[in-house]
Design goal:
CATH topology of the largest domain: Thiol Ester Dehydrase, Chain A
Oligomer: single chain
Radius of gyration: 18 Å
CATH superfamily of the largest domain: Hotdog Thioesterase
Low-confidence stretches: 1-15
Helix content: 10-25%
CATH architecture of the largest domain: Roll
Shape: globular
Order of helices and strands: HEHHEEEEEHHEEEE
Mean pLDDT: 88
Number of domains: 2
Strand order of the largest sheet: 1-3-4-5-2-7-10-9-8-6
CATH class of the largest domain: Alpha Beta
Number of helices: 5
Distance between the termini: 39 Å
Largest sheet: 10 strands, antiparallel
Strand content: 35-45%
Number of strands: 10
Structural class: alpha+beta
């Protein structure tokens, strides 16, 4: 479907086009939820896609890093959105890299419908050896990334600690369709698991305004992950995924929601 093919948008200069990368997408029937809008899982996939597109253009995509026995892994992510695009809308997503800090690389995003900005996001990444799964000791400042020195997203992806006061909602066994090219569960699948663990009726009652996730441990084929929920506080809800084999928390999620009845 040509509507799913990202089209890089050249900004004013060639250098700037590599610093700030943009793709456009049509919100078609493959991307909407039961309310006829772009859903969280689909949005996270679009953010991943435009990020991969930019990295590939810069010479640091999956194939480039795999050739060096390396891989980029997402460690934290935060998304804030004021309104969810409707079926038939066209969205433009801009992305860029912030100047590096230590071992981590931060990537920002802005989401537009027409000229209106409807969402922002930021993600942090770590470069790992794809055999040992340990951080690579590499001076990221020497990789030649074009960094955007100003006009960043105004927030960071914060640390979300695991908690003990939780109840288990359901559990999922990792399936073939959950695995990505790094041979572990893709980051977007964790959001889908959390959404699937929430009672169906709740999806129509609440509007998601902010989504945050920390990735703590890998899950792979055959793993069983328990989706757990902590007591909510105001409009904030907390979830975590517990790996059954060793009782290790694999990810933590915090969401800010609004009651659509108010």
């Amino acid at each position: 479907d040509s509507s799913l093919t990202p089209r890089p948008q050249t900004l004013s200069e060639a250098v700037l086009a590599k610093t700030v990368w943009a793709c456009e997408y049509e919100i078609n029937s493959l991307l909407i939820n039961t309310q006829g809008r772009l859903g969280l899982y689909a949005l996270l996939n679009l953010l991943q896609d435009v990020g991969w597109s930019h990295a590939h253009t810069l010479g640091h995509g999956h194939e480039d890093t795999a050739g060096r026995k390396a891989m980029w892994v997402l460690t934290r992510q935060r998304v804030q959105i004021s309104e969810w695009p409707l079926w038939g809308n066209r969205v433009k997503i801009e992305t860029w890299l912030r100047p590096t800090t230590g071992a981590f690389v931060s990537r920002d995003f802005r989401v537009y419908v027409g000229e209106k900005m409807i969402g922002e996001a930021t993600s942090s990444f770590l470069l790992l050896n794809n055999e040992t799964r340990k951080p690579m000791r590499e001076d990221l400042s020497k990789l030649g990334f074009p960094m955007r020195s100003e006009n960043h997203v105004s927030f960071d992806a914060e640390k979300i600690q695991p908690v003990s006061d939780v109840k288990t909602l359901t559990k999922f066994e990792v399936r073939n369709s959950d695995i990505d090219m790094n041979n572990h569960v893709n980051n977007t699948r964790y959001a889908q698991w959390v959404l699937d663990a929430i009672p169906f009726a709740s999806h129509a009652k609440f509007l998601l305004k902010q989504y945050e996730i920390n990735f703590i441990a890998e899950t792979k084929s055959g793993d069983v992950v328990h989706i757990q929920e902590a007591p909510s506080s105001g409009g904030t809800v907390f979830f975590q995924g517990l790996r059954e084999s060793d009782s290790k928390v694999a990810f933590t999620v915090r969401m800010h929601i609004e009651d659509t009845a108010t």
